[in-house]
Amino acid sequence: MATVSRVVNNNPNVKPQTRKKVYEAIERLGYRPNAVARGLASKKTTTVGVVIPDISNSIFAEIARGIEDIANMYHYNIILCNADKRKEKEIRVINTLLEKQVDGLLFMGGTVTDEHILAFQTSSVPIVLCATSDEKGAYPSVDIDHEAAAFDAVNTLIRHGHREIAMISGTLQDPANGYARFHGYKKALEAAGIEYQEDLVRIGNYRYESGVEAMKYFLGLKKKPTAVFAATDEMAIGAIHSIQDEGLKVPDDFSVISVDNIRMASMVRPLLTTVAQPMYDLGAVAMRLLTKLMKKETVENPRVILPHETILRLSVNHLNE
Amino acid sequence: MATVSRVVNNNPNVKPQTRKKVYEAIERLGYRPNAVARGLASKKTTTVGVVIPDISNSIFAEIARGIEDIANMYHYNIILCNADKRKEKEIRVINTLLEKQVDGLLFMGGTVTDEHILAFQTSSVPIVLCATSDEKGAYPSVDIDHEAAAFDAVNTLIRHGHREIAMISGTLQDPANGYARFHGYKKALEAAGIEYQEDLVRIGNYRYESGVEAMKYFLGLKKKPTAVFAATDEMAIGAIHSIQDEGLKVPDDFSVISVDNIRMASMVRPLLTTVAQPMYDLGAVAMRLLTKLMKKETVENPRVILPHETILRLSVNHLNE
DNA sequence: GCGCTACATCGTAAATGGTTACCGTCAAAT
DNA sequence: ATTTGACGGTAACCATTTACGATGTAGCGC
Questions:
Q1: Which residues sit opposite A230 in a β-bridge?
Q2: Taking CB atoms and an 8 Å limit, are B267 and A122 in contact across chains?
Q3: What would the mean pLDDT of A21-36 be, rounded to a whole number?
Q4: How many Å apart are CA B116 and CA B111, to the nearest integer?
Q5: What is the structure's pLDDT at B16?
Q6: Straight-line distance from CA B100 to C1' D16, in Å?
Q7: What confidence score (pLDDT) does residue A321 get?
Q8: Which residues of B touch A122 (CB under 8 A)?
């Protein structure tokens, strides 16, 4: 028994000849190791839990792909749970994942509240936050600097001569895509000495339709902006179509910029100028970090901020050109 | 011990008073049931394996969402494995999933070859194919009728007066999105007495760019088609933009139709006319079927074909209108 | 009131399929 | 002959489930 265990686990302490015999028997009997029994005995399952808001959202799907690729590389499997950013569902899946004895946990979600922390604390396995972070910074995380990304986006608008800049924001309750990006907008305005005007920002829900709606509102203003910054690409694309549906042109009549760089950004006309967030890498780096933690390697910086990059395409113009 | 097991599993054979004491102890000790040990003893893991070509592909992501929702409803978790339609990776993940003692397997992939069948046969748990099916029809599956969907798409073009209809196909090696849809195209042509012309079909790789390329080719033909059928929405959108980039109009100069109905289809101008495939439902129904199989319920029809529906939007016009 | 039966409740121990610490054996080297 | 190291076997252990048996108690007939 022990010998079989050794050959299956590639333990060197077994004579090649015996090893061969074991392999033959395995073949002959159609033996398949039972990972559950192995997990019980070894206290390792080589699976990690991933809680994700919504796998059908292309951003998270891309992150998930990064996670899975790296997990696979290190011979982990992942258990995927959608939680829709609903707190009580998040807590629930965290607990079932922990019951399943995952070797580590990757958490993606909007906000991490005190209740989340409480759930995390009952865990004996490492946890890393992906595309979020906790207030206190107590947990390892990987994310981008949303505020800086938004700042850069608005700033490129400003550098193109725009001063009447509207924003289609997410809800301010959302710390990353909402609050932080909105604050980046405000700061960029402030840094350029432009006064913040409340009626130049609308709150959307990140979806295409809400971008269309918000833009309709701006189009109806007596004093129209010359450019709009959308918190996400999808809303930006909605805004572009809203503009075009009125017979106006992007970027001639309005410049549009946003943050994300989803694939669709290069599948619209005009090609969307946006600040890219490295989605695949967010997942990949988070998973890599988790593997280190699971191996109890010491990691220098457990809170990593990945760089963003503004991608100049065709939806932004110099004003009066 | 047995009593604790009983209360944790809601077995009625335990005095309410004892039950309460157990709950108290659980609370006090912070006890969390170990699902791995439970799995070993009960031979059930309440997790199912899902092999998927690519989770970052929006179609599969949507299917996956359907799978996960239903799985969750029946208290299963899912282990997600990307296999990129690469046979040897598919076989590999099937085996590791089986080692992990999943209670069932959901397989999505391009082709199911004899080697797949061989791997399936070693399984003691039910397997259902989703968005594919095997030649012999030996395994439960849920899919749409790709050929009929393509037929309907081409037929609506024909009913709009078009007779010079190009196709942007997928590779003919791919049984569903490739071969079947191509054959639907041919049959629709044939049924309308239109001669099939080889230089009116181009093979793409399902991606936007290949749609752009293929359309460029058609645009360069001396005798241009008046309409194009793309095997997938993404290629259709590429085609639309290719047309627009030449200063031509959809649908005035060219009609465009395809199959899929991804979200992006209603996020382009003009809104894409397409034959909708119920992606979420494909996943949901497949998972529901699997739950029945896992419970050893007898199922009337293990090979389900979900209906498709052609969605008339704005990318198709009557010819000479 | 007694004895018996039946049932509810609970505990015991085997089983699940591995890993691994520990020990014994054997052959080669010193 | 003794030491050493490679190799293989034994058995404890992992945290549950579950078959089975033990215990206690209530109901019933007499």
A1: A168, A258
A2: no
A3: 90
A4: 9
A5: 87
A6: 17
A7: 53
A8: 30, 32
